[in-house]
Amino acid sequence: MTNHWDNYHRHWKLLDAPLRPTAETVGIFDRELDLGNADVLLLGVTPELAVLGRSMLAIDQSATMISGVWAGDNASRKAMAGNWLSLPLQRASFDAIIGDGCLSAVDSKAARNLLFGEIARVLKPGRRAAIRVFARPETADDLHSIEALVTAGGVENFHALKWRIAMACTSDDCDSTIKVRTIRDTFDSLFPDRVALAARTGWSMTSINTVDVYAGSDISYSFATLAMLIDEASGWFGDVRVVPSGSYPLAERCPLLVLGSPNA
Known about the structure:
- There is one protein chain.
- About 35% of the residues lie in helices and about 20% in strands.
- By secondary structure, the chain is of the alpha/beta class.
- The chain has two domains: about 5-135 and about 225-260, 3-Layer(aba) Sandwich (Rossmann fold), CATH 3.40.50.150; about 145-220, no CATH class.
- Strand 4, helix 4 and strand 5 (about 125-130) form a beta-alpha-beta unit.
- Helix 6 (about 160-170) crosses helix 7 (about 180-190).
- The longest helix is centred in the middle third of the chain and has 14 residues, at about 110-120.
- The chain is globular and about 55 Å long.
- The termini are far apart.
- The model has no long low-confidence stretch (mean pLDDT about 95).
């Protein structure tokens, strides 16, 4: 089985919003969860979020992502390998839980449900979690309209294009899943001439070529709609809120899902 996460860390510095959180988004996490005095669990190793909290434990399933992307352990923060769907942690052990895109990194409604359940389990009573989500629109984009939008200069960067293509190709069912290699294959069919695309948009070839990390990967992502995510989260949390995550390309599809009052 080919896993693109084993190579993804090599492309990390080439990524930009919406695939990585901006400083504005980090500030919104901090404000929403009041993290200054909090012991924080980070799902993933997103370096921009590593600065938050009084202490932090980051958990990622990929050892290469930890070694390649993590900001580094110190007295107040550390990273370890682990499965988000079966966290090696005690019940009610964290003041706050945060994650960036982690609900799309799992591949089905069942997996998202397990993830919500684990967040509810390890969160302390009365505290909150916040996950930045990648939510596909209720009405799917047409691939030809995406192509026209790029031609008209309406897509701000290549990473926003990747997510537009991914969301347009997501399965129209409760899982909302897509094999990541389909993102790259669909891009290649829409824009077979990458040099021409770079010339037309001003995007660098190194940025465009980041899509090749998906080639041949057996991993799937999921891009549920916001309504689906709210409904799924509400099975585990009594207080589910949607908070805008800032102003950057495709930010309207990437709000924070703020989760409080875990169901008993």
